[in-house]
Amino acid sequence: MMCHAGSEEFNALFQVPARMSNQDWLSKLRKNRAIAVIRASKIELGEQMAMAVASGGMQLIEITWNSDRAAELIAKLRMKLPDCLIGTGTLFNVQQLQDAIASGAQFLFSPHIDLEMIAAAVTKEVPIIPGALTPTEIVTAWQQGASCVKVFPVQALGGASYIKSLQAPLGHIPLIPTGGVTLKNAPEFIQAGAVAVGLSSELFPKKLVIAENWQAIAQHASNLIQNLA
């Protein structure tokens, strides 16, 4: 079902920060299993990409902070897609994180571990998912308060087999692999123990975006959700 457009006024929507408990966040991840990662050179394009995957049934949408007018796009999508969670990623410092929260971002991804960023997100009660690769990095992020950990780039260490090998010692830490996850192998990551996966270019092939074939992209999203159910 497509996330429907809402009638809330902008100011009413953002009178309170987008707080969410880790338990609620993990529940959303286990229900949806996939996050659409959008990196858009134009805000209009980013909006169309988000609407396309939402119409295909995806409810977790990440707008990378290096997208065109990312803060404005996040705020707009919060209004248009109230049944979805709209977050951001590619955050590199506390200032960007605070700006993202102010824009209405409901979850926060970073490609690395920054203890100040984790602490700031925990204080604001907005889920933060730092990027890590080795067991030491994963445990460090978790112990500092990360809501879960992004394993990136997962393909560099063997893909789904790496996630599976982490389960015995680190099975208590929810992992979201990205970087090498495809429409075809996404189920393997869930079966290996990942709580969810993140996909970008696989959901948004350049040819389809250039052609503005949003129906085909919606179908990609729908197929992915069905395969992960």
From TrEMBL:
Coiled-coil segments, which residues? none
Question: What are this entry's molecular-function GO terms?
Answer: lyase activity
**Name of the protein this chain belongs to:** 2-keto-3-deoxy-phosphogluconate aldolase
**Self-association and partners:** Homotrimer.
Q: Of which family is this protein a member?
A: Belongs to the KHG/KDPG aldolase family.
Mind telling me which InterPro entries this protein's record contains?
Aldlse_KDPG_KHG, Aldolase_TIM
* Entry keyword Lyase: yes
Q: Which Pfam families is this protein grouped with?
A: Aldolase (PF01081)
Q: Does the keyword Lyase apply?
A: yes
Which pathway, metabolic or otherwise, does it act in?
A: Carbohydrate acid metabolism
Q: Which of UniProt's keywords are assigned here? A: Carbohydrate metabolism, Lyase
